[in-house]
UniProtKB/TrEMBL annotation:
Protein's recorded name: Fe2OG dioxygenase domain-containing protein
Single Gene Ontology MF annotation: metal ion binding
Keyword Iron: yes
Pfam families the UniProt entry points to: 2OG-FeII_Oxy
Coiled-coil ranges per UniProt: none
Span of domain Fe2OG dioxygenase: 4-108
Positions of transmembrane segments: none
SUPFAM superfamilies found in the cross-reference section: Clavaminate synthase-like (SSF51197)
Keyword Iron carried by entry: yes
Taxonomic source organism: Brassica carinata (Ethiopian mustard)
Keywords: Iron, Metal-binding
Length: 162
């Protein structure tokens, strides 16, 4: 067993997006969902670039002073049995300004069993099955590392079912 596999963990990711002289030729950060549960994002309050996918359209998330963006990840989608979807988002390259962000997240241990919460599974329409398999979080992270920028549904299906 690897050191730390038995404990949940808190992480922080600091990102810097420098100005890009040709933003139409470059992807900033490609569209993806986050693997964990809830992400708190402290974004630059001067330069935009973050977008979320809503009803098939990319929507700008306008930076606001002293605001925190709360992003739901894949584990919330699974725990809620699909009621709350993980948010597809991306960051555009910009010609002006240095955009910075700080993302803080809390993830379960790599050994944690993840699946729809019993109350969410019970709320699923009668006669239908759970929408998501039960799996080990570490197995999901292994798949996610290779497929972060791909559709999320195959990631859920690729993990070992308990």
């Amino acid at each position: 067993m690897e050191d730390g596999e038995e404990t949940a963990f808190f992480g922080t990711k600091v990102s810097h997006y420098p100005p890009c002289p040709h933003p139409k030729l470059v992807n900033g950060l490609r569209a993806h969902t986050d693997a964990g549960g809830v992400v708190l994002l402290f974004q630059d309050d001067e330069y935009d670039g973050l977008q979320v996918l809503k009803d098939g359209e990319w929507i700008d998330v306008q930076p606001l002073p002293n605001a925190i963006v709360i992003n739901t990840g894949d584990q919330i989608e699974v725990l809620s049995n699909g009621r709350y979807k993980s948010a597809w988002h991306r960051v555009l390259a910009r010609e002006e300004g240095n955009r910075r962000s700080i993302a803080s997240f809390y993830n379960p241990s790599y050994k944690a069993a993840i699946g729809p919460a019993p109350v969410a599974a019970a709320a699923t329409e009668e006669g239908s099955e759970k929408n998501y398999p039960k799996f080990v979080f570490g197995d999901y992270m292994d798949v996610y590392a290779d497929q972060k920028f791909m559709p999320k549904e195959p990631r859920f299906l690729a993990v070992k079912t308990l």
